[in-house]
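User: Run a structure prediction on this.
Assistant: Running it now.
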Amino acid sequence: MAVLWLKEEVTDVEPAKRYAGDSEQGKVGTSVGFGRTGEGDDLVRTVDRDKRGMDNVIDSTAGNVLVSDFDGPNDNPQSLEGLIDGGDSGGGVFIQDGAGWELAGVHSTATGTPFPPPPPPTNDSTPQYGDNQYSGRVAAQSDFIDRGIAQSFVNAGDRLPEPWEIPGKEYSDRFDKDMFNVLDPEQNLAWDGFGNVVDTYDYEFIDGQVDALANTDDALFNDVVADNAYLLFSTTSDPNIYYEFPDILVGDIWATPPEINANGVADVDGLEVWGPEGKDDADAFSLEGDPNDVAVYVYDEDTTITVPYLTTFQIAEAIGRPDLGDSLTLDALMLFDWTPDQSFFDEGSDRILFSIDPIDIFDGGEIWAWDSKNTFANFLVHGGHVWDTAFDVMGTYGTASEDVNALEAVAATSPSTILLFSLGGVALGWRKRARRAV
């Protein structure tokens, strides 16, 4: 798969919503393509490039692949049972999930289909009853797609995207609450940029308040550290989310309470963006006060198990103040786990961006960048300045507090111009997601 950035907006193609769940098996997949056509009990095929569709039950989800078999007349087939053939690669497999159609797979190959297919076929490798088709599983590539889209944004221009344009936004409030505005410790909320929210992860780990959020593979981590993406941040007692331009000392409010949550926002205590729509992905977090001296936890969605990732003592060592190990509190982070393997100190180069609550000589406005290969963390250089204690956050951006409370990053582009080119031709766009089988 590859993510392509188009120079012009696509306006004449209805978007295809991307399926992000894990329940494809057993659902009827509707496939669309322009390939060869014929009957399942002979080898005669016609090449006319007409668009056709067919149905087939998804029998298995083998890792990154959706598998369906071609049932004959005596095998309880669908009324429009079919299988892909030569020329269908890149077409979509759609399933109905919830309120509408979602793209679950992209055609790749079928049992015995020669590539390239010789028209007309003359051998028994042409798909027939009993053969299988194999389609790339879109949900299994969600992280790759999101990273590719985000990276394309970095090089796309200098326009700051609006909050509603950025996919997969999650946040936690000063006092965690659910979508009905009821207090609920460790509950995260997804927000759409228009004030609407829905529940996402509820870690239900120990009784505490979420104090920081991240994905273990934050899409724009390396770009914001390199000062190539917009930095997003919030501060204590401030309900807004702020941005800072890369390379120059310019910034302002990026998102306001009516855009974040129409029920009201006390302050944004944790922030995660660039996740897949409809799927939770804030799998790293910190709790207020860092109980048990754990600064960062990681959460495994499949097992619902939460494990310690970094301790306060390790953070204290990294900032050169080991004496603060049992008293400092991490309260903002971004994360890039190279493997990921739920361990910061492994063979790769894992990295974290973090801030801490005010303590000792630190006023809470510092942001550090730490590479696991290095003993010490360094202050982030972004926006043409150093995010150290001397930098005046309140005086520069008019925030309610000096204490940085959440960290994230966005990058610029013109909307509706990012497409995914996958396995021969289906195009998936962000926002105006363009879908056309070829």
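Confidence is low (pLDDT under 50) at residues 113-124, 413-438.
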